[in-house]
């Protein structure tokens, strides 16, 4: 038996949100946003992107906006079992022990709670879907999820220890970006007054596909709520919107790729020339800040 070690999470698979406007949101994300409904129930929708992941976004009807759960990817059931054992040894609350997942997408996984009561699913062997043509400028995967937290240091310590994620950069002591493999970040935390989902980012193939996506949304009547611009930390192009329920999605491209052997995290001062490398976006408005702040999310109950 190998020595216990933190899991090596490979990717963020999907983000599940609770939404106060299910039908309107399904129409928005499967319409101008560029996702496609993979499975539907009366009170939930599972939407895929162009890539092979079964779904990248779940929407669940609810009476308040919230995060339902985040799903992270491991390659094998053996690594899932080892990750569950590691999390238990680190004191994490196990909601579901490792086993077959009896939900759309299936696979083999387990669920735990983070220190702010968020549900995290770690899985392997999820059902594949056929990739959509890459010449269509639509999202190919979920890029990252940013979460508001009341204790950025405690949460960073927990996610690095229990999930094995690594810090890529800080934005002063306000935001921290954590990576799995490759992409600069799969999740980020934002110090705030209450826990809530801040935004979910979807990646398109390149800057051309990104601008065409902004154009498709504009033609459909959806203006950016912040952007277009380009972030300093992560170097990714950004365009933020407000969805029909008031949740915030981001269209992004060209996320920085990290070389594990040479990367050294930096602390980015929050000044205009580092917050938007394009200098096209300007500072976020009170309107988008309010939506990114969201409403207090008590998490799993
Ligand atoms: Fe983002």
Automatic annotation (TrEMBL):
Endpoints of the signal sequence: none
Oxidoreductase found in the keyword field: yes
Oxidoreductase in keyword set: yes
Superkingdom in the source lineage: Bacteria
GO terms under biological process: L-methylmalonyl-CoA metabolic process
Swiss-Prot/TrEMBL keywords: Dioxygenase, Metal-binding, Oxidoreductase
InterPro entries: Glyas_Bleomycin-R_OHBP_Dase, Glyas_Fos-R_dOase_dom, MMCE/EMCE_epimerase, VOC_core
One Pfam family of this chain: Glyoxalase
Protein name as annotated: Catechol-2,3-dioxygenase
Stretches assigned to the VOC domain: 11-125, 141-254
Record GO terms (molecular function): dioxygenase activity; metal ion binding; methylmalonyl-CoA epimerase activity
SUPFAM superfamilies for the chain: Glyoxalase/Bleomycin resistance protein/Dihydroxybiphenyl dioxygenase (SSF54593)
